[in-house]
Amino acid sequence: MTAPSEKPIAIVTGAAQGIGLGIARALALASHRVMMADIDQDRLGQSARAIQAEGGEVVPQPLDVTKPDDWDRALATVGARWGGLDVLVNNAGISPRGTAESTDLALWDLTLAVNLKGAWLGAKSALPWLKKSRGVILNIGSTRSTRPMPGLFSYVVSKAGLWGMTRQLAVEYLHAGVRCNMIAPGWVDTANERLLQARHGRPDFPAGVSNLTTPEQVGAAAVYLASPAARTISGVILYLDSGLHVADEAGMVFFPESRALPFPQRIDEA
Predict the structure, then answer these.
(1) Residue 228 and residue 182: Cα distance in Å, rounded?
(2) Which end of the chain has the lower number of beta carbons within 10 A, N or C?
């Protein structure tokens, strides 16, 4: 890690809003210097200014995680500005609906590109820096990384792949001192999640949900896993889902009640 007298340096993808913003803010307020990366430049600038107003040291960076050139520019920028990197948070992701049959090739390619390929490109670009600092990679997964749900085909596959990547990176870079872990939230109440649920017939989300996680809680977990206190933790999945991964409820698939079918037949939520 960066010398104790210096602030650690982090990159957080998908940092303009939601979970990514919660992580970026938590790291910044815990004395990290944070590059906030996102494809949505307008919202990213607003979010960065809000954290700066709270005293956080952050800089916005345009980044499409699916493009290697964007990653090269981001790493060159963080290196030129702060001289290194200690923490990479692969948070950018999408969560489209669809079954194996209703998911088309374009949706499959997009989901895997953003949720899985993007994280690999980030790790690939950041590892030369992280090996120098003996740093940390945090991948933001989901309860669905290990506990599938009908109607989330490409999303579940991508997050399961991200869990496999997490363990593989932990193994490959163990002796280089680079740790890699996954944070797996359950249902998170964000603006994007509310819009997504509304499109699928649940405009009152999150009414009735008992397993909500907040972006602030995900941020707090990221701060801990990025800290020296977690130095011996690598290759693990940290569930932030109020036990949802061990006590799931089939009825938590949010689609119009008129189309609801008993589990496991509820497979038409395209």
Answers:
(1) 17
(2) C
Side chain identity, residue 20 = G
**Residue 138 dihedral angles phi and psi, to the nearest 5°:** -120, 120
Give the start-to-end residue ranges of the domains of the chain: 9-245
| 155 is a catalytic site residue | yes
DSSP letters of 46-104? HHHHHHHHTT-EEEEEE--TT-HHHHHHHHHHHHHHHS--SEEEE-------B-TTT--
Alpha carbon distance 20, 26 (integer Å): 10
Lowest mean pLDDT among 61-75, 83-97, 162-176, 208-222: 208-222
Encoded tokens for 221: 């977990």
Most confident of 150-154, 225-229, 245-249: 225-229
Please tell me what DSSP assigns to residue 259: G
Which residues in 234-258 are b (16+ Cβ under 10 Å) and which e?
A: beebbbbbeebbeebeeeebbbeee
Dihedral of alpha carbons 125, 89, 163, 202, sign: negative
* Stretch 24-44: mean pLDDT: 97
Query: What's the whole-model pTM score?
Result: 0.89
Q: Which fold has domain 9-245?
A: Rossmann fold (3.40.50)
Whether 12 and 20 have beta carbons less than 8 Å apart is answered as: yes
- Output the CA angle 11-8-51, nearest 5 degrees: 60
Could you say which of 155, 173, 224, 239 is catalytic?
A: 155
Could you give the CA distance from residue 198 to residue 135 in angstroms, rounded to a whole number?
Answer: 39
Alpha helices in the chain (DSSP H): 18-29, 41-53, 68-82, 105-112, 118-133, 153-172, 191-199, 215-225
Question: How do residues 235-252 score in pLDDT, each as one tens digit?
Answer: 999 999 888 888 766 445
- Contact, 88 vs 137, CB < 8 A? yes
